[in-house]
Amino acid sequence: SVLVVGSVNADVTVRAARIPAPGETVLGEEARVSPGGKGANQAVAAALAGSSVTLCGAVGRDTFRAPALSGLTRAGVNLAHLHELAAPTGLALITVAASGENAITVASGANARVTPAYLPTDLSGFTHLLLQNELPSEVNREAARHAHAAGLTVLYNAAPARDPDPDLLAHTHHLIVNEHELAAFASGGGEALETQARALLTRGPRAVTVTLGARGSLTVTADAVDRLPAFPVTPVDTTGAGDTFCGVLTAWLAQGHPLPTALHAAGVAAALACTRPGAQDAMPDRAEIAAALAR
Ligand code: ADP
């Protein structure tokens, strides 16, 4: 079973003609409140894909708690290690312009108050740990160290990009990044993606996956390179594609599938998530992934 240690947010999205300039006010349509946060999104994707999933993180006791948790509850994610703090629930304020561009401000709230003391001490029920970059780095470092020592497989989606933590990387089995996040690890020099990804194999991970949007993904291990084209879809909203990829990859590995099979399923699921608006609302379930794989 899968343990996700990560962020939980409510996303407040407003569509407006354009993104306001500094000091400016722009009138938009009505706000939409939906569940988000990379940790919650990935937990939901993994649970919908058929895994037993537990989320460790924190929310507040305010009005945004319920919308932040709605997707997790619906997907059946175990919230026994979700802490309720006297701090505001994490909030992402998203403006989407008519051009399709967006501007996002994240108020981390309770997510920033998570400490290593909140991590489950008994990891014996879990086989896989999945991390992202929306909790304090000492939480990630401690979770990875403990999980690695307990024999779990540690997957780390280094998103959003931040300064690499060598200790976290050393305890990661599988690193997942997009091209932009890969650049945060690279030493510069403009080398080919495969060379940059391969260089990271010397720093801890035994697999590195680079997601490439509509160009699919590239995964390197010590003895193989797996280039997967994207599953062809007509995208309407790519929000949550990366989170779907990470959640489903982890779920399929936890269900015992070999890496190439799990990567294929993750790519198909992420593409399906692009065919509907929203993040958690757009994620496919196990039956839809299986049907697409059979096509
Ligand atoms: P992020 O959203 O984190 O930047 P990517 O844009 O690389 O991540 O997308 C993650 C994965 O989602 C890709 O590896 C691919 O499998 C899938 N994906 C994203 N955009 C598309 C698309 N337009 N068509 C098909 N699959 C897509």
TrEMBL record:
It is found in: Cytoplasm. Requires a divalent cation, most likely magnesium in vivo, as an electrophilic catalyst to aid phosphoryl group transfer. It is the chelate of the metal and the nucleotide that is the actual substrate. Its main location: cytoplasm. Pfam families: PfkB. InterPro entries: PfkB_dom, Ribo/fructo_kinase, Ribokinase, Ribokinase-like. CDD domains: ribokinase. Activated by a monovalent cation that binds near, but not in, the active site. The most likely occupant of the site in vivo is potassium. Ion binding induces a conformational change that may alter substrate affinity. It catalyses: D-ribose + ATP = D-ribose 5-phosphate + ADP + H(+). K(+) binds at residues 237, 239, 273, 276, 278. Its EC number is 2.7.1.15. Pathway: Carbohydrate metabolism; D-ribose degradation; D-ribose 5-phosphate from beta-D-ribopyranose: step 2/2. The keyword Phosphoprotein does not apply. Its cofactor is Mg(2+). Substrate binds at residues 9-11, 37-41, 134, 243. Residues 1-285 form the Carbohydrate kinase PfkB domain. Homodimer. Catalyzes the phosphorylation of ribose at O-5 in a reaction requiring ATP and magnesium. The resulting D-ribose-5-phosphate can then be used either for sythesis of nucleotides, histidine, and tryptophan, or as a component of the pentose phosphate pathway. Belongs to the carbohydrate kinase PfkB family. Ribokinase subfamily. This is Ribokinase. The lineage of its organism: Bacteria, Thermotogati, Deinococcota, Deinococci, Deinococcales.
